[in-house]
Write a structure and sequence with these properties.
The protein contains three helices and five strands, in the order βαβββαβα. By secondary structure, the protein is an alpha/beta fold. It has one domain. Strands 1-2-5 form a three-stranded parallel sheet, covered by helices on one side. It has a two-stranded antiparallel ribbon with strand order 3-4. It starts with 8 loop residues before the first strand and ends in a 5-residue tail after the last helix.
Length: 91
Amino acid sequence: MSSGEFVILADLPSNSKEFSIACEQAGADSIILHLNDDSSHCSRFGGRDIEEQSLKDCISSASAPLGIWIGDSRPIDILEWELVSILDFLL
């Protein structure tokens, strides 16, 4: 994390490896990914069936800590919770 007073959190508009790399290069201290979310910034994020590979790609390419925002566009199912629990997220 940066040594200054502020921490920079990058809230991605899509779970994209390219976005996560760009955010790190721009100085983000941590990156927020999404699952099951109709976000306020006009982005929509699907469930495990849609987002799983994108989440894994972001995790494999990022060196900054990653967090996940689990939205409420639909109830999370057991397979999605298992995916989140085995991936390397700061919850």
